[in-house]
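Can't paste images in this forum, so I'm doing it all in text. The chain is below; anyone willing to post the predicted structure tokens underneath?
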Amino acid sequence: MADHDPAKPFCYLPFADRKDYWKEGCSIGKLSHPLWDWDHSYPNFIKTWANKADDFRFMKVAKNKPVSSCAECIRFSGQILAAKSREDVARIRRLRKKHFLEVQAERAKYHEARERVEDGYLCMIIDGMDQKKTSLPRAPGSRAGDETESVKTRIIGVKVHGYKKYFYIVPPDFPHDSNITISLLLQTICLWTKETGGPWPKYLHIQMDNTCSDNKTQVMLAAFMRMVEAELMAKVQFGFLPVGHTHEDIDACFARIASYLRKTVCSTFQQLADGTTDAFKDGEAVSVV
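Text version of the structure:
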């Protein structure tokens, strides 16, 4: 039920209060997990949680978690709390397990694609950074939501697996729709072919957020279908993780940028671009456009 934060070694549980986990444990019954090896009083549950701190040091409750939650996971957990019988609890847990397996299968497809190495194959992931973390101007120590932030600038990242990362500074007057997503994907492919000196990829896998506003649209599908019809590519595959489970490796890159920007002054687009580049000073291949 936990959501992994790719930027940190933490898994965030969906509830914001430990008492909700105690209630769910009581409704399910004693489990074969060391956390639930307690008599069924809440004080003993808290005591056990504290004593097992080393075993659960990477588990965090959901209060103020930096990753979005899955509505399905929250709904299943709420149904377990409201269940009136053990049969209902067992039925809901089976449905929740099926949901977890579906998410795991979708994520495995992307991980298999990004590890695939062969001529003519390219795997990339595209996502946008939280605008609240890239608004201008910014002073050292400023965080998302500061009143000093006025220009809603956006950073869109494209990670080409096995090669490098590309970050695009998008001004606020650019609409956030399928057109800009398609443009940045094509620009990334053009830069990749120019820098590597190779031809266009014949097989392309694109991992994107599961949103119908700018990714899962007819315009997006039509654009790449036209490329296949024109024989620029042989196959284009899209990957969409379920909403609430879309946290992937590109988000770890955004976390590094946000951490660096909190320590520097950014008043212009150029300073924002320089800060994005400087966030990766350990030899990683990065381009900022």
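Helices lie at 18-28, 42-51, 71-82, 86-115, 178-196, 218-229, 249-261, 269-278. The chain has eight helices and nine strands.
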